[in-house]
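Give me structure tokens for this 634-residue protein.
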Amino acid sequence: MKHGFIKVAAASPVIRVADPDYNADRIIESIKAAQEKGVKVLVFPELTLTGCTCYDLVMHRTLLDGAKKALIRVIKATEGVDMLIFVGLPYRDGSRLFSVAAAICSGRLVGMVPRTEVAGTHFAAPDSSFCHASLGEGYETSVAPDTLFTSSCVPELTVAVELGADMDAVTPPSVHLALAGATVIARMASFPMTVSSRADAELSEKYQSRRLIAGMVMASPNKGESTTDNVFSGLCMVTENGVILAEEESENGLAVTELDVNMLTNLRLRQSTFGKASGSLTASWGEGLEETTLTRYFTKNPHLPAKAADVPAYCERLIDIQVSGLVKRMQYAGLDHCVVGISGGVDSTLCVMICARAIKRMGLPSTNVVACTMPCFGTTSRTKSNAIVVAEQIGAQVRVIDIGESVNKHFDDIGHARDDYSIAFENAQARERTQILMDIANEVNGLDVGTEDLSEFIDGWCTYNGDHTSMYDVNMGVTKTQVRAAVKHIAQNTDDKVLADALWDVLDCPVTPELLPVTNDTIEQKSEENVGSYSLQDFFTHKMLICGFTPKKTFRLAKIAYGDEFDDEELIKWLKSYCRRLFSQQFKRSCLMDGPAVEGFSVSPRNGFLIPSDGMDTLYIAELEDLEHELGLR
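Here you go.
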């Protein structure tokens, strides 16, 4: 349960209709199998102990009494098992019959939750109050709708349940339960197998878990149900915030994975609606914290689709967002030219191609893109050549402006030695380029379109009032990972071989600001040697800024995602660098220009991720130093 990871499972054993004793054995077997895997929350289908296809038999005392006795057997079998288990059965309260979920943990009957949508069934709808339930042998509890089962050990873990047709209600109980604080919904299904049942269930689970920012654990009946009118498949599924993490459709199926309730509560903090509902009964469960062995997949590229087949459409949509934003801004301002500084790097390459698409969409000639390459002390022939080739192939107007003389004159004016390669030496070049771009934009009735990407704004790897600023930045909401994916997508799909070759070489070049002198025309100043791998930085951004994880949890997930690519010392080194730069470079983010977000996250000072410009990184660095002690690195 460390870092909020909870191992959960949906189970669907093959049962016999109207044979509770046999079914109890199958349930106990599933519990043991789940226990071996470290499961803490286990969900069975509706009416597991009797079968959901008993029809009129469900009203007979023989079956009802048999179900109660079978439930007692299951409860006793869970003694010493620290697991919250939901088992379905029919339960009679006087002249009312309910379909209930019995919540069991470590030999205790924690509570019973009745189904509320009962039209067309033998079951009664519960009222807003709760009734007392007695199974005999001292097992007593309440039968109440809207019950929340809160872990005694993990505050973020609160489980609620909905049964059968409750899942398909216009306003299902899960809505109220999530608003009341439930982070995990146990969905005890009773639907049969159809040609579309799996696809329908996937759509429902993804939509509802995303809508409620919740984990969903769904189990449906298996092939042991009656085939009088339907066949059942035993579909089991675990979904988290719109993503299916585990799915199983087989006899005696068990879908097992880990839900991250820490992430779910972090995401809910951005909403002001969760935790407001009232009127729910709360029951506690759980005996202690344990380490959760993680089996779920963590990608190195969380800013891109998990499936490679989805990347092309994703990139096209990303590009369309950039183009649409640029077109709107130019039309509003009455401008008809785009001015771009091209360096041969991946960011400016994507930017100039975005400008070409925007100009085309506006019905203007391609030469209305003014691509300026401004070589100076650190420019290599490779990057300069790539920049010019890309610009020429898209039909842009290319201007080559050597700024060496202007920068040297500036050094003389301020009394800076020409061989003093300090920060002033580097920044003077970046600011000279920005001045040129803005002045040309004014000259041609154009817009100076910025090339800096989201990753560089987060780590501050840009010159304040140099490449840091522009009149509109199309890359402002795009990570380096996404920029590279978009350029690769264009390279793979263009019919222009010359353009494609240049794009592939751009992708092959190391990221560099090219601000320090070169020898032998070789790229020597490499950004990732100073700020770390951009893939790693983008991973940190997703986990720390979007998911709200701590540095220790981020480290743990990076180790899983990257395997042996980085050792512990390297990961902590770059995590420290990331945290320090996140705070120290905020002053650059506090005055950023306009630019579109592409995945609902940005560092815009108007509506993006904001921190004070003089905030302290003390707690973050201290946590990483503590981690170093734990790993024996200090």
